Amino acid sequence: MNKRRDQVRVVTPEDREPGPRTPGMDRQQAFATEGTWSGFVRTEAGMVSGWHHHGGCESVIYVLTGAIRVEFGPDGAEAVVAGPGDFVYVPKDVVHRESNPSAEPADIVVVRSGTGQSLFNVDGPEPG
């Protein structure tokens, strides 16, 4: 496939590449450029991911199916829950983890903007 940057392109599900790894999450990369990353992520029902952050990248998540719960803040004490049709914004450097509280797989689309490494797996959030 021709990968010129000045050309409109399509990535089919079969064309996706494995994305950065966090335990409990199946990330599939669609596009990665100097300033953005986009892809598809599936989390199985009941799954809880490892703690991580995205460095200097901010993330926008769109929930297609299932539900996601994002824990963050001191001791991970804060959380938001989103379902199909909802958007979630995760700022730069925010340590968080995702879980799927629904009975079906959660499929989400993620778009990140920023530069540098986009995934840092960590032991947990800052203490409160």
TrEMBL record:
Source domain of life: Bacteria
InterPro entries: Bacilysin_H2HPP_isomerase, Cupin_2, RmlC-like_jellyroll, RmlC_Cupin_sf
Region called Disordered, residue ranges: 1-27
Domain Cupin type-2 residue range list: 41-111
Biased segments, Basic and acidic residues type: 1-19
Gene3D superfamilies tied to this protein: Jelly Rolls
Pfam family, one: Cupin_2
Matching PANTHER family: H2HPP ISOMERASE
Protein name (Swiss-Prot/TrEMBL): Cupin
